[in-house]
Amino acid sequence: MNHREEQEKQQLEEYKKNPTINMADSVNRSKIGNLGALTSGGFLTRIITTLVIIGGLLLLLFLK
């Protein structure tokens, strides 16, 4: 079990103990975003996400 899975398991246990934490966390993520969710997939998903981000940055640089 990797660190991310252990952290998610602990977070689920906290949500069960105190459900209002879940709502507060959801509101914070809706305002800030969860960048970890972009890379939570497999290896291919991480590569595609990285290429899209790099491609978008390069596009912004060349358009200016």
UniProtKB/TrEMBL annotation:
Keyword list (alphabetical) reads: Membrane, Transmembrane, Transmembrane helix
InterPro entries for the chain: DUF6366
**Which Pfam families does the record match to this protein?**
DUF6366
What domain of life does the native source organism fall in? Bacteria
Q: Where are the transmembrane segments?
A: 43-63
The protein's name in its UniProt record: Phage capsid protein
Source species: Paenibacillus aceti
